[in-house]
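Tokens in:
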């Protein structure tokens, strides 16, 4: 390709809404252009990066799955069968829906589990036909509330999604590990720092899931891990050993007048104790798709925070219907009278809930594991401006159902070894794999004839890689102050040939000859034959991040060209007669390492 004929423009400054270094460089280097909130055009250089990423992923999936293409437009009926229509249109509200001229509703696919099940249940009848594993590359659509960080959170993106179907859980587990190993190879070939972590399965569901994170300061996710390499988890799912609370200063039960102390800090200051000596009680509204509201009372230690994902999962498992909202309570909706907010006790009576349509008449009461271990603690007295001290479970207060809803923190001890502390890093999720089990097959009546003749539901797995997210994740980690620094395996071109003075016939002829020689050798060369200042061309070369640059300037008169390696800045003089061979050797070596 010749830059003089290319759709290629660079920018000295990035737009103000380009929040991260990676998207700033992608915009400035002419890879992408924003056309709307969460919507980006992929320009020629970016299109080549995405194509090469897809080719890399295909190489690693060879033999593990067959490539297919599913429709983006999906009938509502399939999502109703799986039970996820309400979850995706109301709870997360993330699914774009459209209506055809006959009034039938469809989803613009955010994911394809339902379509995959529908296809396989119509084609696979016997255990002899299993396992089956398929994958596709395609556009996905998600109605993000706040698209941000460039390609990391968009409304339309490229994804590789795969689905596998098995006769038993053992076969599913084997494919799950094989796909995880393929993801590890992809990231290792890219040369980026990454971690595989335990993850929450979210609305996809299933018994186990694992995320693959590219480490970057701009990552939206927090990863907690131990130095021994035996534990790593997304903070949404992470567990730890809570530090033991110091001995309580309270020996007997008592009530205390504590006016103006609705917070943990203010109450502890008046009572002369630490936050770990308090049990705080937080009220939530749990709303299901049918409009039913269940008040939830959660007890946690005063120095701990509620993990919203863990709480969602705990509540979803305990209320009937599809949970679509879980927020800090709007107590005006359900309270029968004034509430002692800031002074609530674990035994806040159900009678504070008004009897009205759509409101469940009793609290769902949950107590975090660490709070359940508290002894002689302080908490609210269910009366404004009053607290109690020296309280105990089973004596002062009935014990609520004990669950883990606490947010694990860096610095806490791991559960597998108390000598191992949790460390924190930021990560960009680029891949997620799931063992779904029979959830979708049972819901959608997808069965096969087992060896004993019985009809059994498929065991299913799903496996996703955000291709455009991964491209920007690489940019975030590999860019420097001058621009992008692409790994050779996904760089848009292998080498950039820069003509210093297009008015110099000798330089132009040397560049044209080298360009033709490289293309004949199979080297993907880009020729910068634009008029303009040499300094601007060199800046553009650094900005685009192409691994090698060959400069054809005054040295041409001596039969020389300069080869510069983008990542190291190393410069070498080449004999023009040997230049094509030397560049070819370097390109082949870089691709072999990948």
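Residues out:
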């Amino acid at each position: 390709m010749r830059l003089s004929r290319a759709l290629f423009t660079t920018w000295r400054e990035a737009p103000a809404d380009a929040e991260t270094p990676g998207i700033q460089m992608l915009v400035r280097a002419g890879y992408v252009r924003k056309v709307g909130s969460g919507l980006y055009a992929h320009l020629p250089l970016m299109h080549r990066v995405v194509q090469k990423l897809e080719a890399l992923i295909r190489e690693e999936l060879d033999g593990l799955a067959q490539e297919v293409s599913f429709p983006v437009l999906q009938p509502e009926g399939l999502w109703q069968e799986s039970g996820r229509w309400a979850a995706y249109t109301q709870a997360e509200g993330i699914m774009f829906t459209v209506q055809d001229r006959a009034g039938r509703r469809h989803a613009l696919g955010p994911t394809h589990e339902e379509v995959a099940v529908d296809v396989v249940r119509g084609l696979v009848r016997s255990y002899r036909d299993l396992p089956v594993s398929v994958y596709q590359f395609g556009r996905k659509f998600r109605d993000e509330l706040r698209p941000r960080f460039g390609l990391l959170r968009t409304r339309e993106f490229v994804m590789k999604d795969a689905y596998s179907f098995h006769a038993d859980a053992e076969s599913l587990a084997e494919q799950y590990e094989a796909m995880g190993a393929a993801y590890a190879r992809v990231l290792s070939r890219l040369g980026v720092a990454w971690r595989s972590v335990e993850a929450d399965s979210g609305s996809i569901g299933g018994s186990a899931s694992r995320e693959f994170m590219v480490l970057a300061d701009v990552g939206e996710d927090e990863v907690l891990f131990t130095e021994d390499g035996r534990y790593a988890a997304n903070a949404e799912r992470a567990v730890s050993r809570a530090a033991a609370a110091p001995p309580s200063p309270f020996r007997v039960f008592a009530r205390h007048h504590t006016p103006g102390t609705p917070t943990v800090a203010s109450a502890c200051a008046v009572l002369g104790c630490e936050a770990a000596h308090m049990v705080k009680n937080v009220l939530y509204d749990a709303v299901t798709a049918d409009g039913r509201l269940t008040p939830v009372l959660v007890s946690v230690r005063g120095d701990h925070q509620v993990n919203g994902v863990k709480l969602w999962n705990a509540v979803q498992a305990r209320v009937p219907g599809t949970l679509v909202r879980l927020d800090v309570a709007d107590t005006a909706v359900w309270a029968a009278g004034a509430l002692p907010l800031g002074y609530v006790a674990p035994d806040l009576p159900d009678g504070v809930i008004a009897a009205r349509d759509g409101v469940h008449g009793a609290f769902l009461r949950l107590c975090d594991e660490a709070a359940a271990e508290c002894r002689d603690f302080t908490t609210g007295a269910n009366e404004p401006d009053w607290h109690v001290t020296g309280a105990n479970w089973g004596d002062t207060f009935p014990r609520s159902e004990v669950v883990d809803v606490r947010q694990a923190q860096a610095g806490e001890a791991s559960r597998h070894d108390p000598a191992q502390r949790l460390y924190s890093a930021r990560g960009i999720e680029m891949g997620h794999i799931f063992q779904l089990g029979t959830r979708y097959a049972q819901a959608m009546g997808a069965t096969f004839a087992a060896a004993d003749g019985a009809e059994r539901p498929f065991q299913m797995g799903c496996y996703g890689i955000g291709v455009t997210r991964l491209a920007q994740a690489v940019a975030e980690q590999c860019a420097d102050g001058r621009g992008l620094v692409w790994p050779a395996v996904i760089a848009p071109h292998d080498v950039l040939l820069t003509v210093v003075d297009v008015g110099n016939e000798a330089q132009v002829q040397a560049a044209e000859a080298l360009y033709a020689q490289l293309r004949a050798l199979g080297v993907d060369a880009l020729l910068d034959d634009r008029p303009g200042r040499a300094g601007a061309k060199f800046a553009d070369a650094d900005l685009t991040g192409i691994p090698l640059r060959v400069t054809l300037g005054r040295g041409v008169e001596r039969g020389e060209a300069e080869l510069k390696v983008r990542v190291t800045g190393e410069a070498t003089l080449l004999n023009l007669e040997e230049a094509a061979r030397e560049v070819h050797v370097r390109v082949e070596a870089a691709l072999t390492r990948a």
